[in-house]
Design a protein that fits this description.
Radius of gyration: 19 Å
Oligomer: single chain
Strand content: 15-25%
Distance between the termini: 19 Å
Shape: globular
Largest sheet: 7 strands, mixed
Helix content: 40-55%
Order of helices and strands: HHHEEHEEHEEEHEHHHE
C-alpha cells in the first residue's frame, strides 16, 4: 500500500514541478543521461525492462533503442506518469510504491532505478523487491547521490517552495558505492560493477550552482515574485547544460573524468545469478 504522506507529497510535486524541464536539462542531468546510456548499452538484455521512479519517462523513452522488448515505468506520482505516457509510446505505466512493486516474481530482465533509492524510507525493502522481481541472470542498474564527509538524511524544500511545495524537509539521503553493494548482497544480488560518476561536474558544476543559488537567495530577500525566481532557476539549469555541452565538445569533460576519481553520484550494477535466492 502506498504510504499516504509520501503519496500526497509526490502527487503535489508532480503536478507543479516539471523536473524534466529543469534537472534533466542541466549539466548534472545531461551527465547522468550520458552515463546511464553507457550502462544500458553495456548490459542490454532481451525481454521486459522496468524503470523504477521513472518520472516523465526520460530513460523509458530510450529503452527501445537499447533492446528492450517491452518497457514498464513505475512512479508514486500519477501526474508524472501521465507525462511519461505522453512522452513515450507503447509503455506500461504503473502508479506504485517502490517498496512494494506490484509485479510477478522473476519477471523483469532489466531494472533501472536512477535517483530513486535516496528518497525511500526503507531502501532495503526496495532492494528486496528488486531481488524478487528480477529474472535469473537479469540486471539492476542503480544510481543515486554519493556522499563523502557528511551523509544527508533530509533536505529542505528550497527553491521548490516557489513552485508551491510546502516549506518542509523531505527524504533525500545518499549512499556511497559500498553501501549500495552491501544492500544488494543482503538480498541475494551479485554486484558486478560499482563506482561513482559525474566527475566532469565536480568543480565548475558546484561553482556555477553556488553562484546561481546566491542570486536566488538575494532575490528571495528582496521579495522578488516567485515567477521571476522560477525563471532564474530555469536559467541556472539551462546555462549549466550549455556549459556541459561545451566541456563535452572541447574534450574538457573527458579530461576531468580522468583527473578526478570520485564523483558526486554513486552507481551499482548487480545481477541475479542462477543459483541466487532472495533470503527475505
Amino acid at each position: 500500500m502506498i504510504k499516504s504522506k509520501y503519496k500526497k507529497f509526490y502527487e503535489h510535486l508532480g503536478r507543479v514541478y516539471p523536473e524534466e524541464k529543469y534537472v534533466h536539462r542541466s549539466g548534472w542531468g545531461r551527465a547522468r543521461k550520458r552515463f546511464v546510456s553507457i550502462l544500458l548499452s553495456k548490459y542490454t538484455r532481451d525481454g521486459l525492462w522496468l524503470d523504477v521512479g521513472c518520472g516523465a519517462g526520460i530513460f523509458l523513452k530510450m529503452f527501445p533503442s537499447f533492446g528492450a522488448g517491452k518497457s514498464i515505468g513505475i512512479d508514486i506520482s500519477h501526474p508524472v506518469l501521465m507525462r511519461a505516457k505522453r512522452n513515450c509510446t507503447g509503455i506500461h505505466a504503473i502508479c506504485a510504491d517502490a517498496e512494494a512493486i506490484p509485479l510477478k516474481d522473476s519477471s523483469m530482465n532489466l531494472i533501472l532505478s536512477s535517483e530513486n533509492v535516496e528518497h525511500l524510507e526503507h531502501p532495503k525493502r526496495f532492494f528486496s523487491e528488486v531481488s524478487r522481481i528480477l529474472s535469473r541472470n537479469g540486471v539492476i542498474i542503480l544510481t543515486c547521490p554519493n556522499w563523502h564527509k557528511i551523509k544527508p538524511v533530509c533536505i529542505p524544500a528550497g527553491v521548490l517552495r516557489h513552485f508551491g511545495i510546502p516549506d518542509e524537509s523531505f527524504i533525500h539521503t545518499a549512499f556511497n558505492p559500498d553501501e549500495l553493494s552491501d544492500m544488494a548482497l543482503t538480498v541475494g544480488l551479485n554486484p558486478i560493477e560499482k563506482g561513482s560518476f559525474e566527475c566532469e561536474m565536480r568543480i565548475w558544476g558546484r561553482i556555477h550552482d553556488s553562484i546561481w543559488d546566491g542570486i536566488i537567495r538575494i532575490m528571495e530577500k528582496l521579495h522578488i515574485p516567485a515567477v521571476a525566481i522560477k525563471l532564474a532557476y530555469c536559467l541556472q539549469s539551462y546555462s549549466s547544460g550549455i556549459i556541459f555541452q561545451f566541456f563535452r565538445i572541447t574534450g574538457l569533460a573527458w579530461l576531468m573524468r580522468r583527473v578526478f576519481h570520485r564523483g558526486p553520484r554513486s552507481y551499482i550494477v548487480a545481477t541475479k545469478s542462477v543459483d541466487s535466492s532472495n533470503p527475505h
